Amino acid sequence: MFLARASLVVFAVQGDRVFPRLGYTTGHWSWGSNELGNSGWLMPSNSLISTSYSANRSLSTFIGAQLVVFPYQIQPGTVLYVGLYLNGQLGAAENYTLKTSYDNPAYVLGDVKNGVANFSDSRVVFTVSMIRLKATISAGTQITVTAWASKPIWLQIDKLPLTHSYETSTWVGPTPPSVILPTAGRVAECTLAVGGTGS
After folding, report:
1. What is the SS3 assignment for 59-128?
2. What's the distance, CA 78 to chain centroid?
3. pTM (2 decimals)?
């Protein structure tokens, strides 16, 4: 679902840098989750998690998406792959090697229940985008963001989701597949908070 934003800018921290959170950027159309909370789900390793939204306006310049990781107990050698799909076709992908320590690590507030925890206000943001679109993305296009990690990581979840995330472990990563069926697999235990923006 796309939502117009007039002047709200939310800042997120990636390492030591502060920048506007995608999906809440002034002057662009936003899509995806509006979640700003600190609830996270321990996403299992070697599972492809996909979360989809439908565009309700056309985009002709760019489209971007973000996922938030809570830097808590990240294991050495953890790699995160993030994919961006339009109508099931891969448009862009990024891979990130996560650090095991951060200047401002997250810590759990309270208990971990069913793989879900609340965290201190420490986040690392990972993005994927298509810049200078070659063709206009029309209204009604299905936008899907995928996540795959080599080891379990804590990802921000949407506590009031408008969609579901789907999990499949039959695909063996790490590189995102070129074509996906966004609802393949089973409904994941939690919906990932995917923030997006476009123009």
Report:
1. ECCEEEEEEEEECCCCCCCCEEEEEEEECCEEEEEEEEECCCCCCCCCCEEEEEECCEEEECCCCEEEEE
2. 17
3. 0.84
Contacts of 174 (CB under 8 A, 6+ apart): 79, 81, 95, 148, 150
Nearest to 151 by CA among 98, 189, 95, 104: 98
Q: Which residue matches tokens 């123009």?
A: 199
Total number of residues shown for the chain = 199
Domain limits, the chain: 2-198
Strands 2-4, 153-156: pairing is unpaired
Longest dimension (CA), the chain: 48
Average pLDDT for runs of 10 along the chain of length 199: 30 34 54 91 95 88 94 96 95 95 93 95 94 87 94 96 90 78 91 91
| Helix %, strand %, coil % of the chain (to 5) | 0, 50, 50
Residue 134 sits at φ, ψ, to 5 deg, of: -80, -25
What element of type H or E holds 4? Answer: strand 2-4
